[in-house]
Design goal:
Chain lengths: 393, 204
Protein backbone atom coordinates (compact mmCIF):
# COMPACT_ATOMS: atom_id res chain seq x y z
CA UNK A 1 0.00 0.00 0.00
CA UNK A 2 1.24 3.46 -0.90
CA UNK A 3 1.27 6.45 1.41
CA UNK A 4 1.94 9.97 0.32
CA UNK A 5 1.04 13.62 0.53
CA UNK A 6 -0.90 15.94 -1.71
CA UNK A 7 -0.76 19.69 -1.79
CA UNK A 8 -3.52 22.09 -2.70
CA UNK A 9 -0.86 24.79 -2.91
CA UNK A 10 -2.82 27.43 -1.04
CA UNK A 11 -1.16 30.63 0.11
CA UNK A 12 -2.64 31.18 3.56
CA UNK A 13 -1.66 33.54 6.34
CA UNK A 14 -0.24 31.77 9.39
CA UNK A 15 -2.90 32.75 11.96
CA UNK A 16 -0.44 32.47 14.85
CA UNK A 17 2.07 34.95 13.41
CA UNK A 18 0.07 36.92 10.84
CA UNK A 19 2.76 36.16 8.26
CA UNK A 20 1.84 35.32 4.66
CA UNK A 21 4.38 33.81 2.26
CA UNK A 22 4.47 35.29 -1.23
CA UNK A 23 3.89 33.09 -4.27
CA UNK A 24 7.59 32.53 -4.89
CA UNK A 25 8.22 31.41 -1.33
CA UNK A 26 5.20 29.11 -1.43
CA UNK A 27 6.27 27.45 -4.68
CA UNK A 28 9.77 26.89 -3.27
CA UNK A 29 8.26 25.51 -0.05
CA UNK A 30 6.20 23.00 -2.03
CA UNK A 31 9.36 21.83 -3.80
CA UNK A 32 11.14 21.48 -0.45
CA UNK A 33 8.19 19.55 0.96
CA UNK A 34 8.15 17.15 -1.99
CA UNK A 35 11.90 16.52 -1.79
CA UNK A 36 11.60 15.99 1.96
CA UNK A 37 8.80 13.48 1.45
CA UNK A 38 11.01 11.57 -0.98
CA UNK A 39 13.95 11.54 1.44
CA UNK A 40 11.68 10.48 4.31
CA UNK A 41 10.53 7.45 2.32
CA UNK A 42 6.95 8.37 1.45
CA UNK A 43 5.60 6.81 -1.74
CA UNK A 44 3.72 9.64 -3.47
CA UNK A 45 3.78 13.40 -3.89
CA UNK A 46 0.83 14.91 -5.75
CA UNK A 47 0.17 18.53 -6.61
CA UNK A 48 -3.12 20.22 -7.36
CA UNK A 49 -3.77 22.39 -10.40
CA UNK A 50 -5.34 25.79 -9.88
CA UNK A 51 -5.69 28.95 -11.92
CA UNK A 52 -6.59 31.49 -9.28
CA UNK A 53 -5.22 32.93 -6.06
CA UNK A 54 -4.71 31.93 -3.29
CA UNK A 55 -3.35 28.84 -5.09
CA UNK A 56 0.06 28.77 -6.80
CA UNK A 57 0.36 25.43 -8.68
CA UNK A 58 -0.84 26.42 -12.15
CA UNK A 59 1.81 24.45 -14.07
CA UNK A 60 2.02 20.96 -12.58
CA UNK A 61 4.32 19.36 -15.15
CA UNK A 62 6.92 22.12 -14.77
CA UNK A 63 6.95 21.49 -11.04
CA UNK A 64 6.87 17.71 -11.33
CA UNK A 65 9.51 17.69 -14.07
CA UNK A 66 11.88 19.55 -11.77
CA UNK A 67 11.06 17.16 -8.94
CA UNK A 68 11.67 14.17 -11.21
CA UNK A 69 15.25 15.35 -11.47
CA UNK A 70 15.61 16.15 -7.78
CA UNK A 71 14.01 13.06 -6.22
CA UNK A 72 14.89 9.38 -6.37
CA UNK A 73 12.04 7.10 -5.34
CA UNK A 74 8.81 8.98 -4.85
CA UNK A 75 6.00 8.67 -7.40
CA UNK A 76 5.02 12.07 -8.76
CA UNK A 77 1.35 12.64 -9.37
CA UNK A 78 -1.43 15.21 -9.54
CA UNK A 79 -4.45 15.90 -7.36
CA UNK A 80 -6.01 16.77 -9.68
CA UNK A 81 -5.32 17.53 -13.34
CA UNK A 82 -8.20 19.50 -14.86
CA UNK A 83 -9.50 17.21 -17.59
CA UNK A 84 -12.34 19.65 -18.24
CA UNK A 85 -10.62 22.89 -19.11
CA UNK A 86 -7.20 21.74 -20.32
CA UNK A 87 -6.76 20.84 -23.96
CA UNK A 88 -6.43 17.05 -24.01
CA UNK A 89 -3.78 17.38 -26.71
CA UNK A 90 -1.62 19.45 -24.36
CA UNK A 91 -2.24 16.99 -21.52
CA UNK A 92 -1.17 14.09 -23.72
CA UNK A 93 2.02 15.92 -24.65
CA UNK A 94 2.91 17.31 -21.24
CA UNK A 95 2.32 14.15 -19.24
CA UNK A 96 4.02 11.90 -21.80
CA UNK A 97 7.00 14.25 -21.51
CA UNK A 98 6.87 13.98 -17.71
CA UNK A 99 6.63 10.20 -18.01
CA UNK A 100 9.75 10.08 -20.17
CA UNK A 101 11.69 12.53 -17.99
CA UNK A 102 10.77 10.71 -14.76
CA UNK A 103 11.44 7.32 -16.36
CA UNK A 104 7.90 6.26 -15.56
CA UNK A 105 7.98 7.38 -11.92
CA UNK A 106 4.67 9.22 -12.24
CA UNK A 107 0.95 8.87 -12.66
CA UNK A 108 -1.84 11.42 -12.75
CA UNK A 109 -5.34 11.99 -11.48
CA UNK A 110 -8.12 13.56 -13.49
CA UNK A 111 -10.55 15.91 -11.80
CA UNK A 112 -12.98 18.71 -12.51
CA UNK A 113 -11.60 21.31 -10.11
CA UNK A 114 -13.17 23.34 -7.33
CA UNK A 115 -13.41 26.80 -8.87
CA UNK A 116 -16.38 27.61 -11.10
CA UNK A 117 -14.89 30.56 -13.03
CA UNK A 118 -12.04 28.38 -14.32
CA UNK A 119 -14.52 27.06 -16.89
CA UNK A 120 -15.34 30.44 -18.47
CA UNK A 121 -11.72 31.62 -18.10
CA UNK A 122 -10.74 28.74 -20.37
CA UNK A 123 -13.72 29.14 -22.68
CA UNK A 124 -15.79 26.25 -21.33
CA UNK A 125 -19.32 25.88 -19.96
CA UNK A 126 -19.44 24.63 -16.38
CA UNK A 127 -22.74 22.85 -17.07
CA UNK A 128 -20.80 20.61 -19.46
CA UNK A 129 -18.33 19.51 -16.76
CA UNK A 130 -19.06 15.79 -16.92
CA UNK A 131 -19.38 15.77 -20.72
CA UNK A 132 -16.01 17.57 -21.02
CA UNK A 133 -14.37 15.08 -18.65
CA UNK A 134 -15.71 12.17 -20.69
CA UNK A 135 -14.87 13.47 -24.17
CA UNK A 136 -11.49 14.98 -23.31
CA UNK A 137 -10.29 11.85 -21.55
CA UNK A 138 -11.43 9.61 -24.40
CA UNK A 139 -9.32 11.73 -26.77
CA UNK A 140 -6.36 11.80 -24.38
CA UNK A 141 -6.30 8.00 -24.27
CA UNK A 142 -6.40 7.74 -28.05
CA UNK A 143 -3.51 10.21 -28.33
CA UNK A 144 -1.44 7.99 -26.04
CA UNK A 145 -2.41 4.62 -27.50
CA UNK A 146 -2.67 5.43 -31.24
CA UNK A 147 0.25 6.87 -33.17
CA UNK A 148 -1.88 8.76 -35.69
CA UNK A 149 -5.24 10.12 -34.62
CA UNK A 150 -8.17 11.35 -36.69
CA UNK A 151 -10.74 12.71 -34.31
CA UNK A 152 -13.71 15.00 -34.03
CA UNK A 153 -15.89 15.79 -31.03
CA UNK A 154 -18.06 18.48 -29.47
CA UNK A 155 -15.58 20.51 -27.49
CA UNK A 156 -12.37 20.80 -29.47
CA UNK A 157 -11.34 21.54 -32.99
CA UNK A 158 -11.03 18.29 -35.01
CA UNK A 159 -7.71 16.52 -35.56
CA UNK A 160 -6.59 14.86 -38.72
CA UNK A 161 -3.39 12.91 -38.95
CA UNK A 162 -2.22 14.13 -35.54
CA UNK A 163 0.59 12.46 -33.62
CA UNK A 164 1.20 13.47 -30.01
CA UNK A 165 4.89 13.50 -29.06
CA UNK A 166 6.83 12.24 -27.26
CA UNK A 167 5.20 8.85 -27.60
CA UNK A 168 4.61 7.29 -24.14
CA UNK A 169 7.57 5.61 -22.48
CA UNK A 170 7.96 2.04 -23.80
CA UNK A 171 4.69 2.52 -25.67
CA UNK A 172 2.68 2.30 -22.44
CA UNK A 173 0.68 5.32 -21.21
CA UNK A 174 0.88 6.52 -17.59
CA UNK A 175 -1.49 5.06 -15.03
CA UNK A 176 -4.50 7.32 -14.55
CA UNK A 177 -6.74 7.92 -11.55
CA UNK A 178 -10.04 9.72 -11.57
CA UNK A 179 -10.98 11.80 -8.54
CA UNK A 180 -14.51 12.75 -7.68
CA UNK A 181 -16.29 13.53 -4.44
CA UNK A 182 -19.93 13.57 -5.48
CA UNK A 183 -20.28 12.42 -9.11
CA UNK A 184 -20.96 8.71 -9.67
CA UNK A 185 -20.48 9.34 -13.41
CA UNK A 186 -16.76 9.81 -12.77
CA UNK A 187 -16.60 6.59 -10.74
CA UNK A 188 -18.30 4.94 -13.73
CA UNK A 189 -15.69 6.45 -16.07
CA UNK A 190 -12.82 5.13 -13.93
CA UNK A 191 -14.47 1.70 -13.79
CA UNK A 192 -15.09 1.60 -17.55
CA UNK A 193 -11.41 2.09 -18.35
CA UNK A 194 -10.11 0.00 -15.46
CA UNK A 195 -8.37 3.11 -14.14
CA UNK A 196 -7.94 4.01 -10.47
CA UNK A 197 -10.53 5.91 -8.44
CA UNK A 198 -9.55 8.26 -5.63
CA UNK A 199 -12.09 9.69 -3.25
CA UNK A 200 -10.79 12.78 -1.56
CA UNK A 201 -12.65 12.25 1.67
CA UNK A 202 -11.12 15.09 3.66
CA UNK A 203 -14.30 17.14 4.01
CA UNK A 204 -16.78 14.26 3.92
CA UNK A 205 -18.14 11.63 6.26
CA UNK A 206 -16.71 8.15 5.66
CA UNK A 207 -20.15 6.68 4.87
CA UNK A 208 -20.32 8.79 1.72
CA UNK A 209 -16.77 7.84 0.73
CA UNK A 210 -17.58 4.17 1.19
CA UNK A 211 -20.72 4.47 -0.97
CA UNK A 212 -18.76 6.11 -3.82
CA UNK A 213 -15.87 3.63 -3.62
CA UNK A 214 -18.14 0.62 -3.49
CA UNK A 215 -20.11 1.87 -6.50
CA UNK A 216 -16.80 2.16 -8.42
CA UNK A 217 -15.80 -1.34 -7.32
CA UNK A 218 -19.08 -2.87 -8.54
CA UNK A 219 -18.78 -1.11 -11.90
CA UNK A 220 -15.11 -2.12 -12.24
CA UNK A 221 -16.18 -5.74 -12.00
CA UNK A 222 -19.14 -5.11 -14.33
CA UNK A 223 -16.80 -3.77 -17.01
CA UNK A 224 -14.68 -6.90 -16.81
CA UNK A 225 -11.40 -5.65 -15.34
CA UNK A 226 -11.39 -8.09 -12.42
CA UNK A 227 -13.24 -8.60 -9.18
CA UNK A 228 -14.66 -5.63 -7.31
CA UNK A 229 -12.12 -6.06 -4.52
CA UNK A 230 -9.28 -5.90 -7.06
CA UNK A 231 -10.13 -2.39 -8.27
CA UNK A 232 -7.55 0.34 -7.62
CA UNK A 233 -8.73 2.69 -4.89
CA UNK A 234 -7.22 5.74 -3.21
CA UNK A 235 -8.39 7.96 -0.37
CA UNK A 236 -7.57 11.48 0.72
CA UNK A 237 -6.88 12.20 4.37
CA UNK A 238 -5.73 14.84 6.76
CA UNK A 239 -3.82 14.58 10.03
CA UNK A 240 -1.86 16.64 12.52
CA UNK A 241 0.34 14.79 15.00
CA UNK A 242 2.49 15.34 18.06
CA UNK A 243 3.77 12.70 20.47
CA UNK A 244 1.26 13.94 23.05
CA UNK A 245 -2.28 14.12 21.77
CA UNK A 246 -3.15 17.32 23.65
CA UNK A 247 -0.10 19.11 22.21
CA UNK A 248 -1.26 18.27 18.69
CA UNK A 249 -4.75 19.54 19.49
CA UNK A 250 -3.55 22.82 21.01
CA UNK A 251 -1.05 23.52 18.23
CA UNK A 252 -3.42 22.77 15.35
CA UNK A 253 -6.55 24.45 16.75
CA UNK A 254 -5.71 28.04 15.67
CA UNK A 255 -4.94 26.77 12.14
CA UNK A 256 -8.17 24.80 12.06
CA UNK A 257 -10.23 27.74 13.26
CA UNK A 258 -8.94 30.03 10.51
CA UNK A 259 -8.51 27.49 7.72
CA UNK A 260 -10.06 27.96 4.31
CA UNK A 261 -13.13 25.75 3.78
CA UNK A 262 -13.89 24.75 7.35
CA UNK A 263 -12.65 27.71 9.39
CA UNK A 264 -15.40 29.45 11.37
CA UNK A 265 -17.66 26.52 10.61
CA UNK A 266 -17.83 23.28 12.56
CA UNK A 267 -15.85 22.89 15.75
CA UNK A 268 -12.68 20.81 15.57
CA UNK A 269 -14.42 18.26 17.84
CA UNK A 270 -17.26 17.93 15.31
CA UNK A 271 -15.02 17.95 12.26
CA UNK A 272 -12.60 15.33 13.57
CA UNK A 273 -15.56 13.11 14.44
CA UNK A 274 -17.40 13.57 11.14
CA UNK A 275 -14.50 13.55 8.67
CA UNK A 276 -11.13 11.74 8.45
CA UNK A 277 -9.27 14.72 9.95
CA UNK A 278 -7.37 13.28 12.90
CA UNK A 279 -5.53 15.53 15.34
CA UNK A 280 -3.60 13.68 18.01
CA UNK A 281 -0.83 11.19 18.59
CA UNK A 282 0.66 8.98 15.85
CA UNK A 283 -1.10 6.04 17.48
CA UNK A 284 -4.47 7.76 17.09
CA UNK A 285 -3.76 8.24 13.38
CA UNK A 286 -2.75 4.58 13.07
CA UNK A 287 -5.95 3.48 14.82
CA UNK A 288 -8.21 5.63 12.63
CA UNK A 289 -6.59 5.19 9.21
CA UNK A 290 -5.83 1.55 9.91
CA UNK A 291 -9.58 0.91 10.07
CA UNK A 292 -10.81 2.60 6.88
CA UNK A 293 -10.30 -0.62 4.92
CA UNK A 294 -13.22 -2.05 6.89
CA UNK A 295 -15.50 0.38 5.03
CA UNK A 296 -13.86 0.57 1.58
CA UNK A 297 -11.93 -2.71 1.31
CA UNK A 298 -8.18 -3.02 0.83
CA UNK A 299 -7.04 0.08 -0.99
CA UNK A 300 -3.82 0.99 -2.72
CA UNK A 301 -3.09 4.63 -1.98
CA UNK A 302 -3.61 6.91 1.00
CA UNK A 303 -2.78 10.57 0.48
CA UNK A 304 -2.57 13.13 3.28
CA UNK A 305 -3.04 16.87 3.10
CA UNK A 306 -0.27 18.31 5.28
CA UNK A 307 0.81 21.72 4.02
CA UNK A 308 -2.25 23.91 4.16
CA UNK A 309 -4.02 26.43 6.41
CA UNK A 310 -0.84 28.48 6.80
CA UNK A 311 1.21 25.86 8.66
CA UNK A 312 4.86 26.96 8.59
CA UNK A 313 7.31 24.96 6.49
CA UNK A 314 9.22 23.69 9.53
CA UNK A 315 6.03 22.23 11.01
CA UNK A 316 5.06 20.58 7.72
CA UNK A 317 8.48 18.92 7.45
CA UNK A 318 8.13 17.66 11.04
CA UNK A 319 4.70 16.26 10.21
CA UNK A 320 6.15 14.42 7.21
CA UNK A 321 8.85 12.91 9.44
CA UNK A 322 6.31 11.72 12.02
CA UNK A 323 4.13 10.28 9.26
CA UNK A 324 7.00 8.52 7.53
CA UNK A 325 8.72 7.11 10.61
CA UNK A 326 5.93 6.39 13.10
CA UNK A 327 2.71 5.94 11.14
CA UNK A 328 3.36 4.65 7.63
CA UNK A 329 5.56 1.65 8.55
CA UNK A 330 2.83 0.36 10.88
CA UNK A 331 -0.05 0.99 8.46
CA UNK A 332 1.90 -0.54 5.59
CA UNK A 333 2.68 -3.68 7.59
CA UNK A 334 -0.90 -4.06 8.78
CA UNK A 335 -2.26 -3.59 5.25
CA UNK A 336 0.13 -6.20 3.88
CA UNK A 337 -0.85 -8.72 6.58
CA UNK A 338 -4.57 -8.56 5.83
CA UNK A 339 -4.40 -8.10 2.03
CA UNK A 340 -5.70 -11.10 0.07
CA UNK A 341 -2.93 -12.45 -2.15
CA UNK A 342 -4.82 -11.73 -5.37
CA UNK A 343 -5.67 -8.12 -4.51
CA UNK A 344 -3.05 -5.65 -5.79
CA UNK A 345 -0.88 -4.21 -3.03
CA UNK A 346 -0.20 -1.01 -4.97
CA UNK A 347 -1.36 0.76 -8.09
CA UNK A 348 0.53 -0.62 -11.09
CA UNK A 349 4.07 0.69 -11.64
CA UNK A 350 5.34 1.53 -15.09
CA UNK A 351 7.43 -1.66 -15.15
CA UNK A 352 4.38 -3.76 -14.27
CA UNK A 353 2.27 -2.13 -16.96
CA UNK A 354 5.02 -2.72 -19.53
CA UNK A 355 5.25 -6.36 -18.49
CA UNK A 356 1.47 -6.73 -18.75
CA UNK A 357 1.46 -5.13 -22.19
CA UNK A 358 4.20 -7.45 -23.41
CA UNK A 359 2.43 -10.47 -21.94
CA UNK A 360 -0.68 -9.39 -23.85
CA UNK A 361 1.39 -9.41 -27.03
CA UNK A 362 1.70 -5.66 -27.48
CA UNK A 363 5.00 -4.78 -29.07
CA UNK A 364 6.51 -1.32 -28.74
CA UNK A 365 7.58 0.05 -32.06
CA UNK A 366 8.28 3.71 -32.55
CA UNK A 367 6.66 4.69 -35.80
CA UNK A 368 9.19 6.42 -38.04
CA UNK A 369 7.93 9.81 -39.06
CA UNK A 370 8.29 11.23 -42.51
CA UNK A 371 11.35 13.38 -43.00
CA UNK A 372 11.38 16.77 -41.30
CA UNK A 373 10.40 19.30 -43.92
CA UNK A 374 9.52 21.95 -41.34
CA UNK A 375 12.77 23.08 -39.70
CA UNK A 376 13.99 26.33 -41.16
CA UNK A 377 10.61 27.42 -42.45
CA UNK A 378 7.94 29.60 -40.92
CA UNK A 379 4.55 28.17 -40.14
CA UNK A 380 2.98 30.45 -42.75
CA UNK A 381 5.14 28.85 -45.44
CA UNK A 382 3.25 25.68 -44.72
CA UNK A 383 -0.23 26.72 -45.81
CA UNK A 384 -0.63 23.65 -47.96
CA UNK A 385 0.04 21.26 -45.09
CA UNK A 386 -2.31 23.22 -42.84
CA UNK A 387 -5.01 23.11 -45.49
CA UNK A 388 -4.57 19.37 -45.86
CA UNK A 389 -5.67 18.71 -42.28
CA UNK A 390 -8.32 21.42 -42.05
CA UNK A 391 -11.76 19.89 -41.69
CA UNK A 392 -14.00 21.00 -44.51
CA UNK A 393 -17.57 21.43 -43.50
CA UNK B 1 -52.40 2.64 0.21
CA UNK B 2 -49.32 3.36 2.29
CA UNK B 3 -49.35 6.06 4.89
CA UNK B 4 -48.60 9.50 3.52
CA UNK B 5 -45.45 11.00 4.93
CA UNK B 6 -45.83 14.68 5.86
CA UNK B 7 -42.75 16.64 6.85
CA UNK B 8 -43.26 19.97 8.61
CA UNK B 9 -40.41 22.47 8.47
CA UNK B 10 -40.80 24.96 11.30
CA UNK B 11 -38.32 27.81 11.49
CA UNK B 12 -39.41 29.67 14.58
CA UNK B 13 -36.59 30.63 16.90
CA UNK B 14 -38.36 31.35 20.20
CA UNK B 15 -39.86 28.92 22.68
CA UNK B 16 -42.82 28.74 22.56
CA UNK B 17 -43.05 29.76 18.95
CA UNK B 18 -46.10 31.08 17.13
CA UNK B 19 -44.50 29.68 13.96
CA UNK B 20 -44.59 26.21 15.49
CA UNK B 21 -48.15 26.88 16.62
CA UNK B 22 -49.21 27.65 13.04
CA UNK B 23 -47.18 24.68 11.73
CA UNK B 24 -48.97 22.34 14.13
CA UNK B 25 -52.39 23.70 13.17
CA UNK B 26 -51.60 23.24 9.48
CA UNK B 27 -50.27 19.73 10.08
CA UNK B 28 -53.32 18.71 12.06
CA UNK B 29 -55.64 20.11 9.38
CA UNK B 30 -53.80 18.26 6.61
CA UNK B 31 -53.82 15.09 8.68
CA UNK B 32 -57.59 15.41 9.17
CA UNK B 33 -58.29 16.21 5.54
CA UNK B 34 -56.31 13.15 4.46
CA UNK B 35 -58.16 11.01 7.00
CA UNK B 36 -61.42 12.25 5.48
CA UNK B 37 -60.12 10.90 2.18
CA UNK B 38 -59.33 7.54 3.76
CA UNK B 39 -55.57 8.15 3.86
CA UNK B 40 -53.45 7.77 6.97
CA UNK B 41 -50.54 10.16 7.47
CA UNK B 42 -47.34 10.23 9.49
CA UNK B 43 -46.33 13.73 10.48
CA UNK B 44 -42.76 14.56 11.29
CA UNK B 45 -41.62 18.01 12.40
CA UNK B 46 -38.19 19.39 11.54
CA UNK B 47 -37.31 22.25 13.88
CA UNK B 48 -34.76 24.28 11.93
CA UNK B 49 -33.54 25.89 15.17
CA UNK B 50 -32.20 22.52 16.30
CA UNK B 51 -30.25 22.17 13.03
CA UNK B 52 -29.09 25.79 12.82
CA UNK B 53 -25.40 25.08 13.48
CA UNK B 54 -25.38 22.15 11.06
CA UNK B 55 -27.00 24.37 8.40
CA UNK B 56 -24.30 27.02 8.78
CA UNK B 57 -21.58 24.35 8.80
CA UNK B 58 -22.92 22.79 5.61
CA UNK B 59 -23.05 26.21 3.99
CA UNK B 60 -19.33 26.55 4.74
CA UNK B 61 -18.08 22.98 4.26
CA UNK B 62 -20.50 21.44 1.76
CA UNK B 63 -21.37 18.32 3.72
CA UNK B 64 -24.31 17.62 6.02
CA UNK B 65 -23.67 16.35 9.52
CA UNK B 66 -25.79 13.33 10.43
CA UNK B 67 -28.87 15.07 11.98
CA UNK B 68 -29.16 17.47 9.04
CA UNK B 69 -28.58 14.72 6.48
CA UNK B 70 -31.34 12.73 8.11
CA UNK B 71 -33.79 15.67 7.98
CA UNK B 72 -32.88 16.29 4.33
CA UNK B 73 -33.51 12.65 3.49
CA UNK B 74 -36.91 12.80 5.21
CA UNK B 75 -37.84 15.89 3.18
CA UNK B 76 -36.76 14.30 -0.08
CA UNK B 77 -38.87 11.23 0.66
CA UNK B 78 -41.93 13.21 1.87
CA UNK B 79 -45.28 12.94 0.11
CA UNK B 80 -46.15 16.44 1.29
CA UNK B 81 -44.31 19.31 2.97
CA UNK B 82 -45.54 22.11 5.19
CA UNK B 83 -42.97 24.90 5.43
CA UNK B 84 -43.48 27.68 7.96
CA UNK B 85 -41.24 30.64 8.69
CA UNK B 86 -41.44 33.75 10.81
CA UNK B 87 -41.11 37.08 9.04
CA UNK B 88 -37.99 38.94 10.11
CA UNK B 89 -37.15 42.37 8.69
CA UNK B 90 -39.65 42.18 5.84
CA UNK B 91 -38.58 38.72 4.67
CA UNK B 92 -38.48 35.06 5.57
CA UNK B 93 -36.16 34.17 8.46
CA UNK B 94 -32.57 33.91 7.26
CA UNK B 95 -32.15 30.50 8.85
CA UNK B 96 -35.19 29.25 6.91
CA UNK B 97 -33.65 30.36 3.61
CA UNK B 98 -30.26 28.97 4.70
CA UNK B 99 -31.92 25.62 5.38
CA UNK B 100 -33.38 25.67 1.85
CA UNK B 101 -30.04 26.77 0.39
CA UNK B 102 -28.30 23.58 1.50
CA UNK B 103 -31.11 21.31 0.33
CA UNK B 104 -30.37 19.32 -2.81
CA UNK B 105 -32.02 21.21 -5.67
CA UNK B 106 -33.95 18.09 -6.71
CA UNK B 107 -35.14 17.17 -3.21
CA UNK B 108 -38.57 18.78 -3.51
CA UNK B 109 -39.18 18.44 -7.25
CA UNK B 110 -42.84 17.56 -7.72
CA UNK B 111 -43.54 17.49 -3.98
CA UNK B 112 -46.80 19.18 -2.85
CA UNK B 113 -45.88 22.04 -0.50
CA UNK B 114 -47.98 24.28 1.72
CA UNK B 115 -46.40 27.56 2.80
CA UNK B 116 -47.06 29.37 6.06
CA UNK B 117 -45.62 32.39 7.83
CA UNK B 118 -46.10 34.34 11.01
CA UNK B 119 -45.48 38.03 11.62
CA UNK B 120 -46.29 40.91 13.87
CA UNK B 121 -48.85 42.57 11.63
CA UNK B 122 -50.84 41.71 8.53
CA UNK B 123 -48.83 44.32 6.61
CA UNK B 124 -46.24 41.54 6.02
CA UNK B 125 -48.78 39.09 4.65
CA UNK B 126 -47.39 39.08 1.08
CA UNK B 127 -43.90 37.98 2.16
CA UNK B 128 -44.81 34.39 1.32
CA UNK B 129 -45.89 35.38 -2.18
CA UNK B 130 -42.96 37.53 -3.23
CA UNK B 131 -40.22 36.07 -1.05
CA UNK B 132 -40.88 32.41 -0.40
CA UNK B 133 -43.05 31.03 -3.19
CA UNK B 134 -40.42 31.83 -5.88
CA UNK B 135 -37.83 29.79 -3.95
CA UNK B 136 -40.06 26.72 -3.99
CA UNK B 137 -40.93 27.35 -7.62
CA UNK B 138 -37.21 27.28 -8.36
CA UNK B 139 -37.04 23.93 -6.57
CA UNK B 140 -39.89 22.69 -8.82
CA UNK B 141 -42.10 22.04 -5.82
CA UNK B 142 -45.86 21.84 -6.36
CA UNK B 143 -46.87 24.77 -4.13
CA UNK B 144 -50.59 24.99 -3.31
CA UNK B 145 -52.32 28.25 -4.27
CA UNK B 146 -53.33 29.17 -0.72
CA UNK B 147 -50.54 30.06 1.65
CA UNK B 148 -51.32 30.98 5.23
CA UNK B 149 -50.02 34.09 6.94
CA UNK B 150 -50.86 34.54 10.60
CA UNK B 151 -50.31 37.93 12.21
CA UNK B 152 -50.32 38.30 15.96
CA UNK B 153 -53.92 39.53 15.84
CA UNK B 154 -55.01 36.39 14.01
CA UNK B 155 -54.57 34.41 17.20
CA UNK B 156 -57.38 36.47 18.78
CA UNK B 157 -61.03 35.62 18.17
CA UNK B 158 -63.10 37.28 15.42
CA UNK B 159 -60.37 39.43 13.92
CA UNK B 160 -61.58 38.53 10.47
CA UNK B 161 -65.18 37.44 10.29
CA UNK B 162 -65.05 36.67 6.59
CA UNK B 163 -61.82 34.68 6.17
CA UNK B 164 -60.66 33.74 9.65
CA UNK B 165 -57.36 31.98 10.30
CA UNK B 166 -59.09 28.60 10.84
CA UNK B 167 -60.89 29.05 7.51
CA UNK B 168 -57.65 29.83 5.71
CA UNK B 169 -55.91 26.88 7.35
CA UNK B 170 -58.74 24.57 6.30
CA UNK B 171 -58.68 25.82 2.74
CA UNK B 172 -54.90 25.43 2.40
CA UNK B 173 -54.98 22.02 4.06
CA UNK B 174 -57.68 20.88 1.64
CA UNK B 175 -55.53 21.91 -1.30
CA UNK B 176 -52.49 20.08 0.05
CA UNK B 177 -54.47 16.95 0.96
CA UNK B 178 -56.04 16.85 -2.52
CA UNK B 179 -52.64 16.91 -4.12
CA UNK B 180 -51.14 14.29 -1.82
CA UNK B 181 -54.12 12.00 -2.31
CA UNK B 182 -53.96 12.34 -6.09
CA UNK B 183 -50.24 11.64 -6.30
CA UNK B 184 -48.36 8.37 -6.24
CA UNK B 185 -46.09 8.04 -3.19
CA UNK B 186 -42.78 9.86 -3.62
CA UNK B 187 -39.93 7.66 -4.75
CA UNK B 188 -36.73 9.55 -5.23
CA UNK B 189 -33.73 8.07 -6.98
CA UNK B 190 -30.64 7.71 -4.82
CA UNK B 191 -27.24 9.04 -5.86
CA UNK B 192 -26.37 5.77 -7.54
CA UNK B 193 -29.76 4.78 -8.98
CA UNK B 194 -29.80 6.60 -12.30
CA UNK B 195 -26.13 6.79 -13.24
CA UNK B 196 -25.86 6.54 -17.02
CA UNK B 197 -23.75 3.67 -18.31
CA UNK B 198 -20.45 4.76 -19.80
CA UNK B 199 -21.75 4.02 -23.27
CA UNK B 200 -24.51 6.58 -22.67
CA UNK B 201 -21.98 9.06 -21.28
CA UNK B 202 -19.78 8.70 -24.35
CA UNK B 203 -22.69 8.81 -26.75
CA UNK B 204 -24.32 11.81 -25.08
Amino acid sequence: MQFGIFSVGDVTTDPTTGRTPDDTERVRNILTIAEHADAAGLDVFATGEHHNPPFVPSSPTTMLGYLAGRTRHITLSTATTLITTNDPVRLAEEYAMLQVISDGRMDLMMGRGNTGPVYPWFGKDIRQGIALAVENYALLRRLWTEDVVDWSGKFRTPLQGFTSTPRPLDGVPPFVWHGSIRSPEIAEQAAFYGDGFLHNAIFWPMEHTAAMVNFYRERYEHHGHGRADQAIVGLGGQVFMRPRSQDAWNEFLPYFNEAPVYGHGPSMEDFTRETPLTVGSPQQVIDRYGAFWEQVGHYQRQLFLMDHAGLPLKTVLEQIDILATEVVPVLRREAELRRPADVPANPPTHAEMVAAARAAGQVHEQAVAAADHWTGRTAEDDVEAADAVTARG
Amino acid sequence: MSKASIVVVSSGVSQPSSTRLLADRLAQAVHDELAARGRQADVRVVEVRELAHEVVNMTLTGYAAAPLAEAQAALAAADGVIAVTPVFTAGAAGIFKAFLDVLDTTALAGTPVLLGATGGTSRHSLVLEYGVRPVFTYLHADVVPTSVFAATDDWAEDVDDVKSLPDRIRRAATELADRIAAKAPTRRAGLFDDVPSFGELLGG
